[in-house]
Amino acid sequence: GSKWSYIGPDGENTWPKKYPFCGGVFQSPIDFHKDILQYDSNLSPLEFIGYNVSSTDLFTLTNNGHSVKMHLSPTMHIRNLPFEYTASQLHLHWGNRNKSEGSEHTVSGKHFAAEMHIVHYNSEKYPDITAAMDKANGLAVLAILLEIGPFNPSYEKIFRHFRNVKYKDQMVHVPGFNVQELLPDRPDEYYRYEGSLTTPPCYPSVLWTVFRHPVKISQEQLLALETAMYCTESDDPEPLEMVNNFRNVQEFRERLVFISFRE
Ligand SMILES: NS(=O)(=O)c1c(F)c(F)c(S(=O)(=O)CCO)c(N[C@H]2CCc3ccccc32)c1F
Ligand SMILES: [Zn+2]
Description:
9% of the residues lie in helices and 29% in strands. By secondary structure, the chain is mainly beta. The strands form 2 sheets. Strands 2, 3, 4, 5, 6, 7, 10, 11, 12, 13, 14, 15 and 16 form a 13-stranded mixed β-sheet that branches. The longest helix has 9 residues, at 219-227. The relative contact order is 0.24. The protein binds the ligand NS(=O)(=O)c1c(F)c(F)c(S(=O)(=O)CCO)c(N[C@H]2CCc3ccccc32)c1F and zinc ion. Ligand 5EF binds next to β7 and β10.
């Protein structure tokens, strides 16, 4: 099993020992600040194909001990990237009930409350994500920054199942819905850069699209995310809360982040 964690003796500073790419180049996440941003008029709006999944289809929500991830339908894919990318899974990163600053990417040094990632793989060049995940241009991840605001009924379609995946390896089925509802306003406005998986094995294989505008979820929804899950199995005598499951921002030198919007 993947023996790494976000805290303690297997925390992120030890990842490069077992996972060399974690100490390598093009690592994610990063901080978006004005002197590394450059407007690029070629960054066109993405097209989300097959995102409106019928409620008769089922997504599988799993607690994998690191995050809560939802396996997505292979009919979902993105067009308008250099290649066609097919959806694999979505998952989240968050902080804790005393510090709701668990996003991975930051903007001008500021964390958002949480961050959702929709992981896709290059289905034009590779048969599945396992073949794609360590290749250049292998993966494309969409990142949505989450902040506190009104109750969000679309996110609730996932969040209401957290009580059934409290412990590692628990799973539950989620009726399909329009995953495009999870995206922010103005999805044509985004940050774009080449980076990596933010968990081991940290392959530098990810084309990142981080949407400029955050999505709002309520304080209660955020608290549920921060308090519902454990990294440990249901019978573990020493339960470990699943909190602060975000990697710190990485050095980003001599590179630019391209933006699809003018300030
Ligand atoms: N922040 S992130 O987008 O870099 C990222 C994660 F943060 C994360 F936790 C996971 S995971 O699969 O839940 C657990 C560790 O792989 C993946 N999983 C990806 C990477 C490897 C893999 C293989 C099959 C399906 C999904 C994934 C991930 F891409
Ligand atoms: Zn992630």
